[in-house]
Amino acid sequence: MIFPLHEPTLHLLTGLQGLELGASGHNPFGVNALNVAPLADRRTILDQIDLGCLPRAVDLDGHAEYIPADDSSQDFVIASWVLHLTPNLLGALHEINRVVRNGGYVVIFWPAEVFHISTVAEIMQVYEERGLGTPVSEAELWINGRLGNYWRLTQLDFSALVQMLKSGLRYNTASQRQLRLDWRLDWSVVAAEDPDTKTGAGWFLAFKVKKNTEDAHDA
């Protein structure tokens, strides 16, 4: 099955140049984006073949926590059904923010969640343990032969997390320590769907990125 193009994404991103994290042949977007994915990940290629589509070629060897692109060099980043599979969600959001220019866009698709919803404390605990720039091993990406589903967030939960990150995310962890990140996101929602009109099986959010000199330095 090949999913249709997504009109809200086309409206925002047509004519721009950016990146898609983990692009796949069965879920095209029809925009000018290079595919960032681990070159060593052969199983995802086989999964695309099993779905009856031509696999997307990998343009840049990387992943959500390590994007091989310069600071503020991209008009947009698309992460479709990717961030919930990323061990360090905050590390990935930091990396996406680093490479998108001021005024650029972040487009996110996420599968619908009906079971346990991840908490900020859980997300922060992983960030405290890993920090930024920790390599992701293949074993971390794959659990029992399948991509690991690390994070379960509703559209409202994810929006609330982004809002917290605007102020640097002050949060009391389980150890009762006050944690303040030395970076922040200033993303504003410009489009939203729940359920999304592309897959019909999750939600969609598009953000516009705002950066000032201090933000760019912190990122």
Brief rundown of the structure:
The chain is 27% helix and 25% strand.
Can you describe what's shown?
With 219 residues, this protein is of the alpha/beta class. The chain has one domain: Rossmann fold, CATH 3.40.50.150. Helices cover 27% and strands 25% of the residues. The protein has seven helices and eleven strands. It has helices at residues 7-13, 42-50, 89-99, 120-130, 138-141, 155-165, 213-218; strands at 17-21, 32-37, 60-61, 74-80, 100-111, 142-143, 146-147, 171-172, 178-179, 187-193, 202-209. The strands form three sheets. It has a seven-stranded mixed beta sheet with strand order 3-2-1-4-5-11-10, with helices on both faces. A two-stranded antiparallel ribbon has the order 6-7. The protein is globular and about 45 Å long. The protein starts with 6 loop residues before the first helix and ends with a helix. Mean pLDDT is 84; it is low at 143-147.
Q: Give the name of the CATH superfamily.
A: Vaccinia Virus protein VP39
Q: CATH topology, which one?
A: Rossmann fold
Give the C-level CATH assignment: Alpha Beta
User: What is Rg?
Assistant: 17 Å
What number of domains?
Answer: 1
The end-to-end span amounts to 38 Å
Count of separate DSSP helical elements? 7
Given helix and strand content, the structural type is: alpha/beta
CATH architecture, by name, is: 3-Layer(aba) Sandwich
Largest sheet features? 7 strands, mixed
Q: Give, in order, the helices and strands.
A: HEEHEEHEHHEEHEEEEH
Sheet with the most strands: spatial strand order: 3-2-1-4-5-11-10
Give the helix proportion (percent range).
25-40%
Instruction: Kindly estimate the percentage of residues that lie in beta strands according to DSSP.
Output: 25-35%
> Which overall shape is indicated by the principal axes computed on the Cα atoms?
globular
Regarding quaternary structure, how should these chains be classified? single chain
Mean pLDDT across all residues, rounded? 84
